[in-house]
Records
---
Amino acid sequence: MADRYLSFAGTAPGRFLTRRLGLPQPTELVRWSAERPHFTGGLLHLTAGKPDLDAELAPVLARAGLRPGAGSPSAGSPVAVVLDATGVRDVEALGEVHAALHPVVRSVAASGRIVVLGAPLDPTDHHQSATQQALEGFTRSLGKEIGRGRTVNLVRLGGDARAAESTLRFLLSPRSAYVSGQVIEVGAGAFAVPDDWERPLAGHTALVTGAARGIGAAVAGTLARDGARVVVLDVPAAEADARAVAERLGGQALTLDITDADAGARIADALPDGLDVLVHNAGITRDRRLVNMSAERWGSVLDVNLGSVLRTTDALLERGAVNRGGRIVGTASIAGIAGNAGQTNYGASKAGVVGLVRGLAPRALAEHGVTVNAVAPGFIETRMTAAVPLFIREAGRRMNSLGQGGVPEDVAETVGWLAQPGSGAVNGQVVRVCGQSLLGA
Ligand code: NAD
């Protein structure tokens, strides 16, 4: 979908005019491409407080795909800054966060990355809890003011820095262009180091529901690029599109309605070797204000977006059809976090997905060795959002820190990171892909 305002704001007269009128100034984001899979540029590794993971962290950062920074701010524009604040335990040490970032923030390149590393809150030390929580407000505020397509995220590290390697690689790469203002917990769970970080899903089977078009087709494409054999599931009415996507990706189409009572069993029957990645992406909207909403509209949205997700997940886990080390990724929405007028049904269903993740993640990992996470897209340029009236669409696009809508690939890259064998310590997380939407933040 052409975003003419974004193109105009990138020209010299556009920059002049938007600045003079105080209008949003979105920057064209740098996204993954085969020609530019990684950023090239300096990585600045800073610390605040007394970090205990320094020794493990440096080699992880050195492998993260950026040219490691000999970096002082005067050495040029760093493309990424990682601030290790895991050792910040009091307000005095918080001052070191300011001291570390204040002199460098201006020099971070456009579309650059700032990642703050924090520690889990220590329930026995309220000073540590207060200051670690402070990092959240700091990160979100910096994300809102930094501009020029730059993102700021907080990773709370519960264990080994190596468990966060897949997460750091993602956040420090062009893949995470539309992920900002997020707090991601990386626990101490088991993780596997892939043989090839460029194809971490080689030898894995991934099933994506609703993959005949839109975000689902992009997710299938990204997982295939990352090495997976993809199964493109969609309704029988979308069979031609599902087949075309599957053919393009060298995968397999599976047409069924996920609301069918036996959908889980049919998926399991179609995949005798089980699956490694299950992406619940299929979703529908049937908008009306509650006063005008029929039970049919309510029921169909709740059934596609939540009921079938619960049923198929249960059926596949019970049959052992999700292999150990497997990944389940749900699709929530900003509407499920912030709420949206006219979407009580949709908002309820998407909040339900968040609850499913929180409720199931610890148990699925303990009992099946499977992680459960979700993405929560914000305004993504798809057929769905193209149909939104112009002024509402414009507002939706601009009301985030990056001043623009995301693209399906932004959601797909986030799913790709969560789906990796290397992301085993990321469990129970709901990661917003919303350019740090001002709604529900
Ligand atoms: P879309 O309408 O373009 O695609 C959805 C796909 O799901 C379609 O191919 C459809 O046939 C399939 N589907 C619907 N019901 C199904 C069923 N019962 N069984 C099997 N397949 C079914 O939607 P999209 O914009 O690509 O959205 C994908 C997901 O992302 C949805 O869950 C949506 O709620 C969520 N999301 C989208 C946005 C956005 O801005 N586009 C924002 C937040 C969340």
Note: DSSP finds 15 helices and 13 strands in the chain.
---
Amino acid sequence: MIKEISSQSLNPQEFIDKQIREICDTVGDGVAINALSGGVDSSVVTALGHRAIGSRLKTVFIENGLMRENEPKKVQAIFSEIGVSVEIIDARKDFFDALRGIEDPEEKREAVTQTFYKNVFGKLVRESGAKYLLQGTILTDVDETVAGIKRQHNVFEQLGINPEHAFGYRIIEPLIQLRKDGVRRVGEALGLTASVFNRIPFPGPALAARIIGEVTPQRVEIVRKATAIVEESLKNTGAFQYMAILHKDKVTGIRNGNRDFGLQVEVRCWDSVDAREAKPTQIAFDVLEKMASDIVSQVPGVVSVTYHIASKPPSTMEVV
Ligand code: XMP
């Protein structure tokens, strides 16, 4: 049982000092590796790890082909400003090969997990000589996985999987007692910029969690374009998280007077404190209309845009 540290009871500086001591004790004079995705949790764990062991933490960005627009370069630039060098690893082929033909949500998550931890990371760890993977698992990831709601891609020991046996390295998870609001406070105390620690959450399986049906490079490109428009349109809402989802079913549309049997994109925007429960954000209708008009005019093949209005539960925030 993991003991939760609520955001209210968290003393960020004490927390940071304790985690740094533990990382140093565990890694000793060895080498650790971590994957930075640009999300809040991995950004905070990267900053914490570098505070603890400096350049003995090798940070990589796995370009899995499922990330948001220009994300690899953007993340590399942000961290270069705070003196952390990030190597971009092109693993697009591994992920798309593993995802080919899969439609079931949990199988999709499992394909991303296995490709990441076994194939791509396993190889990197062997090559780098690292014995430890530092990663930003948080308590909400563990809760939902253990409850059987969603297999969060970064949870192992709580499922009885020993990463050392399964993948050949140990996993260090300094943020595991926190929820998102606590992680943001730690990020702030570590001196990260607000645009990093206040960023909206982004899931480990990345845009694959936002595609109903098969994940192909073409379908990711559609959801990526729609995501960029949604993030730009809703950035001033103050919402916890917002996203575009690509549906599998096509619908009849009309374009230039002709029938266009096209794609549908669903927009979700959530108000939440810690992602355990969430409500749809009440967005002004003119903002929704402008966003829909931008999506249908700029994202090829899309003829329908809907806004999700149910709460979590019974919905979940991501669609997969
Ligand atoms: P759900 O969809 O379960 O999402 O209501 C709750 C929060 O968790 C994020 N999420 C994930 N984060 N790995 C992650 O690191 C995952 O596999 C994953 N799945 C969902 C989601 O974006 C939301 O903030």
Note: The pocket of xanthosine-5'-monophosphate is lined by residues 140-141, 144, 150, 152-154, 201, 203-205, 209, 241, 275, 312, 316-318 (CB under 6 Å).
---
Amino acid sequence: MSDFSGLVAVVTGGASGIGAAVVNRLTEGGAQVAVLDLSASSGGAPYSVQADVSDDRSVRAAVGAVVARFGRIDILVNNAGIGAEGHVGDNTDEEWHRVFDVNVLGLVRVSRACLPYLRLSPAAAIVNTSSVVATTGLPQRALYSASKGAVLALTRAMASDHLHEGIRVNCVNPGTADTPWVGRLLATAENPAAERAALEARQPHGRLVTPEEVADAIAYLASPRSGSTTGLDLAVDGGMQALRLRQPQ
Ligand code: NAD
């Protein structure tokens, strides 16, 4: 479990859910981990900076603080994200701008600020958190899906731009994962237990994805062990994207 020894990782959205699981996994693997999150909670990381990925100045200051503290950045996990519900007619321009500002431009801002340091790393990797909605049409998620589709396309474009600089760029596409985010969604449902059962039934493996499963996939893509893997989207979705199962008779 020492794939990351000597390496410094930045995890956005590391205070909660998938990000916090990534913090644990990378720390267990020997990385020094810095969390960048709106929340003051550190997600268990010994070092965190309060930052808003939708604010370029805040991002630059946070990345500067990480470099001042650790002297380098080897791994960037662009995981901070927000959701949106509705079909294409439902969301206002402001909502479209806000979700893209966090989910897409947030990734752009943090990557841009980290690139000079990643270029100096012998084991540079960026891993972005996309979603199953980037590859599979789900109802009532038009805006969110568009933003995560952009994350997937950007992952491939970045992988091709930065390969020659020794920076690998991949993403994960989680299915519905059991995080505080989904907890908040369930809390607003008329019947949270029935809603949870419906979400579980939508996953071919019959349950929600755990944050730790997503974190393990992210850790693999961030690790020097995946040195020949770049431009990949790795589904962690219980088969949701790839499988068409027969219902039992
Ligand atoms: P979460 O709400 O538990 O955690 C998200 C974290 O991002 C929070 O700590 C929040 O403070 C932080 N954040 C939000 N906006 C920010 C901003 N502007 N600047 C800095 N930090 C900000 O959610 P999660 O379920 O762990 O989701 C993490 C990522 O995984 C998101 O990108 C989400 O789109 C993606 N994802 C989640 C699921 C799921 O079912 N939970 C499925 C697929 C993809």
Note: The beta strands are 8-12, 32-37, 47-50, 75-78, 124-129, 167-174, 233-236.
---
Amino acid sequence: MPVYQHNLKDKKIDFNTILDKVRVFAPATVANMICGFDILGFAVDEPGDEVKMYRVAEPGVRIRSIVGDGGRLPLGADRNTVSACVKMLLNDLGILQDIGVEIELIKHMPIGSGLGSSSASTVAGLFAINALLNNPLTKDELMPYCVEGERLACGHGHADNVAPALMGGITLVRGGADLDIVKIPVPKELYAGIVFPQVDVPTRDARQLIKEKVLLKDAVTQWGNIAGLVAGLFQEDYDLISRSMQDVIIEPSRAILIPEFYAMKEIALAHGALSFGISGSGPSVVAVSKGPEVAELVTTKIQDHLSANGIESFKYVSAVNVEGPKVLSFND
Ligand code: HSE
């Protein structure tokens, strides 16, 4: 069923079963999967964000603290995307005036990294409130609130980060008002080698660089690649995945924001990556690889190259995270 056809009118919340506290993790994501701008994405095991949520006596939703954001995120309940989305959900359930909730957000990844930082926080917050309320909503029902969080965070409601962050695995986004989120099978040996060069690229800015018009020949190449990638994922055909994960539309505009992009690409492909490109809107880059060894080698070589050029970086090597968000604890 399209995501927006769910409605919460018939949900009954049993106040006797609401929990006192919950601690939740939601994963980072690699949006676009190189060729599928705004429609494809996958979740990774690390990094990710945590939300601790507490039920309190005083009604309303408040942010208690944010750790790991360097003071950049707003604490006001209507401006912070986590609390704003939780408020929206409680309002639609008709219980915003009746329940008190306080939130601690613990960020384990930088803002503006291209790893779906805001999405991980939003998804963690919505997964946490659902857990606190004793899971009255399905993930499909939570999805529209996650998309709203993305709209608040960067001015555009693309779902290619929030969808895999919430659903886990690899997801395909189709439609707008009739949004479908489709899960795609995950080939067992598909690994991501991610390198985050220490520069800040806000998604808003990275989106402004993209040309509004594309040539038909480029569009044909790109939609062939998207279809080839989806087929390759279904068939576990790593060669087809490799040939298909190429971006002739967005990467040429955005690569200039990322230091050493084309040198990193050469290193990745020379050391066996299936494909290399920008993770989300950058500056993180991703070497999609068959097996962890290649991902490990490629990311090490890329980091060596960046260090030699005076650029600090973080790296993460991960299989595709098929679980999505999870409860870490009900006690702290
Ligand atoms: N699809 C988005 C973009 C992901 O590339 O701008 C970043 O949020």
Note: The first strand starts at residue 21 and ends at 31.
